[in-house]
């Protein structure tokens, strides 16, 4: 570095300098790029949007609270049976900012109360697919707008779909729901309330669900293959993760005492079920996958596959409309345009001035 700086300043390098720089002469400095990216990302913070879907009472809220150790559903109003008959599927959103070792995560949980609760569940997934598409549409608009640097990404990165533990595999509503969502979001099926089943029953139900997922051609989230240069331990963990799907999970909002330790669990007259005990359920595997190992991949697939498909479709509709109508028309419903406010005016002015400022800076150099 010393040698490079001196040469850049136009000085002659003396022989000692030359000796000093032999080892470093090939060092340009781009090896620090990962650190720069790391610093920048940490400063900016991360965001993640998780959707939970499944009939009410399957333990969705409890599981989310157990995963992120926050009570996201304090103000939830539970409906009685009569109210639920007329209830339509709604979408509720909760956002929390969590921080761990200086890394900030803006977590959004999208809940789908009312899904599968009605007497007639025909098309009950429609509000959910509509919501996912609306987020794509908003992102598409923002990308084509003025303020591209500060886009708020509300796209749904993963959908945890809760399968009840009581049946003999997937129900028609499960098949229809996952098929309706498979090309729009990463679907991760879960067997809920796994403490209701014995280990043998869990194994049988998992096999059955896996078979039916294949039989009906449902595309659930596929874990990426482990890199070939990973060590044997990482490969083994990766195999175990894949073999455990669909994860059988247990949630609890309570801390109980087991084996002299305080643990998150469920207390029964016959014993304690520990949420984080891998012999009891796959909660730890799910949490590891979702937060520690695959969060980035879930975001990448959302952006590179699901959103890209939506975007390609939009552009295709736009171009085919152009050729048939012989005029430019947006396939997106045009938002009512308000008169630009002061902030927008300022932004437009700033954007207009940017190229001129750049030119001036270059000329001054
Ligand atoms: P949601 O309507 O799907 O959000 O379900 P909730 O999280 O409100 O849970 C409904 C009921 O199931 C509550 O009484 C919970 O205590 C209970 N519950 C939640 N998770 C589990 C679980 O893993 N096992 C068992 N046995 N009960 C659970």
Automatic annotation (TrEMBL):
The record's listing under CDD domains reads: CDC_Septin
- Alphabetical GO biological process terms: cell division
The protein's location, in the record's own words, is: Cytoplasm
Q: Which residues form a coiled coil?
A: none
Q: Which GO terms describe its cellular component?
A: cytoplasm
Important for dimerization, annotated site positions? 166
Under Pfam families, the record lists: Septin
Domain Septin-type G, chain residue ranges per copy: 44-317
Q: Which GO terms describe its molecular function?
A: GTP binding
Q: Which terms are listed as keywords in the entry?
A: Cell cycle, Cell division, Cytoplasm, GTP-binding, Nucleotide-binding
Q: Which family does it belong to?
A: Belongs to the TRAFAC class TrmE-Era-EngA-EngB-Septin-like GTPase superfamily. Septin GTPase family.
Kindly provide the name given to this protein in its UniProt entry.
Answer: Septin
Q: What is the lineage of its organism?
A: Eukaryota, Metazoa, Chordata, Craniata, Vertebrata
């Amino acid at each position: 570095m010393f040698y490079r700086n001196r040469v850049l300043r136009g000085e002659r390098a003396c022989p000692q300098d030359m000796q000093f720089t032999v080892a470093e002469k090939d060092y340009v400095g781009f090896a620090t790029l990962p650190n720069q990216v790391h610093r920048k990302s940490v400063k900016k913070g991360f965001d993640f949007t998780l959707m939970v879907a499944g009939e009410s009472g399957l333990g969705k809220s409890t599981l989310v609270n157990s995963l992120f150790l926050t009570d996201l559903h304090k103000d939830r109003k539970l409906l009685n049976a009569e109210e639920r008959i007329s209830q339509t599927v709604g979408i509720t959103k909760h956002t929390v900012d969590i921080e761990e070792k200086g890394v900030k995560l803006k977590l959004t949980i999208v809940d789908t109360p009312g899904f599968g609760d009605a007497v007639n569940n025909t098309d009950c997934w429609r509000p959910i697919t509509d919501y996912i598409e609306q987020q794509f549409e908003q992102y598409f608009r923002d990308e084509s707008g003025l303020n591209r640097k500060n886009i708020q990404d509300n796209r749904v990165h993963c959908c945890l779909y809760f399968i009840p533990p009581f049946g003999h595999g997937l129900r028609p509503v499960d098949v229809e729901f996952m098929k309706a969502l498979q090309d729009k979001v990463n679907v991760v099926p879960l067997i809920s309330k796994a403490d209701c089943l014995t280990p043998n029953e869990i194994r049988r139900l998992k096999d059955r669900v896996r078979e039916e997922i294949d039989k009906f051609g449902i595309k659930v989230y596929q874990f990426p293959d482990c890199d070939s240069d990973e060590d044997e331990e990482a490969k083994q963990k990766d195999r175990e993760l894949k073999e455990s799907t669909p994860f059988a999970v247990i949630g609890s909002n309570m801390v109980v005492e087991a084996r002299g330790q305080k643990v998150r669990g469920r207390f029964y007259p016959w014993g304690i079920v520990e949420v984080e005990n891998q012999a009891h359920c796959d909660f730890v595997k799910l949490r590891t996958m979702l937060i520690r190992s695959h969060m980035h991949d879930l975001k990448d697939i959302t952006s590179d596959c699901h959103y890209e498909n939506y975007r390609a479709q939009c552009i295709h509709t736009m171009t085919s409309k152009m050729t048939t109508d012989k005029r430019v028309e947006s396939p997106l419903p045009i938002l009512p345009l308000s008169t630009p406010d002061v902030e927008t005016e300022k932004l437009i002015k700033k954007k207009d001035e940017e190229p001129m400022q750049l030119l001036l800076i270059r000329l001054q150099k």
